[in-house]
Design goal:
Strand content: 15-25%
Helix content: 25-40%
Distance between the termini: 55 Å
CATH class of the largest domain: Alpha Beta
Oligomer: single chain
Radius of gyration: 23 Å
Order of helices and strands: EEHHHEHEEHEHEEEEHEHHEHHEHHHH
Structural class: alpha/beta
Largest sheet: 6 strands, mixed
């Protein structure tokens, strides 16, 4: 069974309660009024202080740790991470702990996104390695009930190595696009690659305004400024694409999946700041508020080699049919099993429902005849000129095929 947990922080020290919900019938913006909270004890200040102290260890490989002075010298980083996870888990009620033992996934809905919930540890395992785990920030967002955007092809935007100093990311994108090519027929997928000098603010903004992308994958630098929201965003070749600009650009047609494989791309200021000042203080919050159902980012500075490996593993699972949450869990699990001293996996956070699943091959429109005829009828009903060339471009098939389909339908109507 999949469970949704709600954590609602009321003061500076601890959330006031936690409630559990079966996933059946759950909507994006559920009503919580009819369900009472269950007690939750959590020392937020201590947990956040401890987590901040080990963030440098997450991206540092074991061979360099001996020359770096960390706050705590005598304990292994994995043990420190586990200790923090246990402190969070101990705050759960006995009823919730018992419920989670039979869970298939965990979806946490909360206004307390600064707590590293996915590293909760039940004494046996980190919950983020044990279950598909997703976090939904408790904010007002764009309406998600509208008909999803559909393309004639699966469209993927890659924003890569914008400052020409992350060569590993180019290899990452080559591997991911190769995986996509193997799992989605070539005539049903379209890539846009923006690298180095090509990745400018104006070009990306114009592209996002004019085109819909199913997936946006960013493999470059990001910037998080905890005191100035205007300085938080994606680092492009000619400056920062800021969170407010991102929101305004994609809010009408948000992508289905955003993978922000960049440092601190899941960090944000406390949501109370957003509610008070209406400023988007984190990349993840910008995409979530715009209506993107799945956003993956990182809680700290990450090692680009490890980050690339995790991303490739994620897409391999996703393209084989796993849900977003399960794809990330498997990627983390495999990475952890093979790199037990590298904590990079713990930096990755999913904002959204972990059970979200999409057959990328089937989502692409396959009934071209109906598409072409609908396109033709729409033009005629609006009194607009029908163009074989425009239809060919918009539907994604040859002009001769468009002509054949139109002639076929016209003959059927006689």
């Amino acid at each position: 069974m999949s469970w949704i947990l709600r954590v609602d922080r009321r003061d500076d020290d601890k959330p006031s309660g936690i409630s559990k919900y079966e996933v059946d019938g759950f909507r994006t913006n559920p009503s919580w009024a009819s369900v009472g909270p269950i007690e939750l004890e959590l020392n937020r200040k201590l947990i956040l202080s401890d987590f901040e102290s080990i963030l440098p260890m997450i991206m540092t490989s074991i061979r360099f740790r001996s020359v770096i002075k960390f706050p705590i010298q005598n304990e292994e980083p994995i043990d420190l991470l586990e200790a923090i996870g246990k402190k969070i888990y101990l705050g759960l009620s006995a009823e919730i702990k018992e419920t989670l033992k039979g869970a298939n996934s965990i979806h946490l809905v909360t206004n307390d996104v600064t707590i590293p919930w996915e590293i909760m540890h039940d004494g046996e395992e980190f919950l983020g390695l044990k279950y598909p785990f997703g976090i939904s920030p408790m904010i007002k967002r764009q309406d998600l009930e509208r008909e999803p955007k559909r393309n004639a092809k699966l469209k993927v935007l890659f924003i890569v190595d914008t400052k020409n100093n992350l060569p590993r990311t180019r290899d990452e994108i080559q591997k991911i696009s190769s995986l996509m090519a193997k799992n989605v027929k070539s005539n049903r997928i379209e890539y846009v690659f923006l690298k180095g000098e090509e990745a400018t603010r104006s070009r990306i903004s114009n592209l996002l305004q004019k085109q819909y992308f199913d997936i946006i994958h960013v493999a470059t630098h990001a910037k998080f400024n905890p005191t100035n929201s205007a300085e938080t965003g994606i680092v492009l070749n000619d400056g920062i694409l800021r969170t407010n600009d991102i929101y305004k650009t994609i809010k009408d047609d948000p992508p289905w999946l955003v993978f922000m494989n960049a440092c601190e791309s899941a960090r944000t200021r406390d949501l109370s700041y957003f509610e008070k000042y209406d400023e988007l203080s984190g990349l993840g919050i910008a995409f979530v508020k715009a209506g993107a159902p799945s956003y993956i980012g990182t809680s700290g500075i990450i090692n680009d080699f490890s980050a690339s490996e995790l991303a490739v593993k994620f897409y391999r699972n996703l393209l084989q049919g796993s849900s977003v949450g399960e794809s990330l869990r498997r990627a983390k699990r495999e990475f952890f099993d093979n790199n037990s001293e590298d904590l990079s996996w713990s930096a990755f956070t999913l904002y959204g429902d972990p059970n979200l699943q999409k057959d990328l091959e089937e989502e692409v429109r396959t009934d071209k005849e109906n598409d072409v005829w609908s396109y033709y009828q729409d033009k005629k009903e609006k009194g607009m000129r029908f163009s074989y060339a425009e239809c060919s471009r918009d539907i994604g098939i040859s002009i001769s095929e468009v002509r054949r389909i139109i002639q076929k339908y016209k003959s059927m109507k006689k």
